[in-house]
Amino acid sequence: MVTGALLTMSYVPFDVDHYERQEELSDLERTILSNRRYRSDWAYLQSSVPRLVIPLIDLVAHAGVSDRLAVSSVSVILWHVSRTDIPYWSWSEMQWLALLDTQAGSRPYLAAVAYHMGGFRTPKRITKFRQSAIYASFIFGHKIFKDELTRLSTVLKSLGYTARHLEKFLSGVLAALMLENGDPRLETFTEVLLIKGQGHRSVGIARLVGKVSHGLAALGILDKPLRKRGYADWREKSIEGIDPVWVSWCRRWRDTSTLRPRTRESNYSFMLRTGIWLTREQPWVSSPVDWNTSTCAAVIAAIDRMTVGEWALESALGTKLKGLGQPIAPNSKRAFLHALRRFFIDFELWGWGRLKFSPRHHLATPRTVAFNSGINPRVIDDSSWLKLIWASLNLERKDLLSETHYPLAMVQAASVVWTHTGLRSNEIMRLSVGCAHAQ
């Protein structure tokens, strides 16, 4: 594997200082760019208007964009230069955004031009900004992005993170940090950058910053990983396609429930997704009091046949879903029905109305679903498990990464119990005082 020092030395940032960048167009440039046929003739453009075209062609090689997309993208930029009568390196942020929000050309390549030649350093402001890994690859170059991703992924795997988890999430969070940093090299990442990354608008990326910090600490770039944060906030979910009356009851339940924030928000999502089904299949049902036993039977059947992404909220449509279109897992079905039962039980318990059915009976989890639900344990390599046992026996206060501190003795005891008994968290919580005996 290439070492970090060699990667840092081999990476050459795109240098814009050696290009001629006058603020006004010449009469010859105006004449040539006004002709549509010339705007796609690279050979002619390089000889006639080199200062406008050569930086764009160099960025094509830097970004690794295909010739097909490159021709159309360069043509779009030159057309906008002709229309605005301003060289692209003198455009304002609003002019760049207007171009980047159109359908023309390759948006990541256009963002790379804006980043290097136009000083537009906030690509996340683009309306249709998706997949930050693609933008980081185009802006900094595919090779450096792939090399740094491989370095970080390799060290995180050695720390025990699964390859499947890293492949799904790591590229996005690393790209977001690179764009925020303005430099793709891991050696330039700082604790201040990562703390700022924890405030990212995407909660998923914010949570994964901590994992990146573990990798950087293992590489010797950081002195220690970041302390774990408690994410009390939650991105507001969309309500498109849901009856407003149903939404109001869902929100009232969320604002009243005393469940833990994560559980409360998860249940709230289940109920909103049920609202999507109601709008499609039973639009006459808008309130909990409208439900009857037939509605319960219909929703149980629908959940039993549901596929991944079928009742997705608008706010979740950009999320990459594993197994899209495949039947949802039995555990997901059970969680969905449990959330509905909780909602209806609380509705009646809190005196909000009288139901026409019994939630515990008519929304009970079918036996076939309950039978197929359960824990799917993952086999842990013996060497990794021995490391966990050693760590549990030698746990010290400096090892605690959470800002919420339990007594150190309690954490030490729970760690030893877990590594020596293999009990799940709920089983450990049920252990009685005095159950442990010295051997």
TrEMBL record:
Name of this protein? ORF4-like protein
Q: Which organism is it from?
A: Pseudomonas syringae pv. maculicola
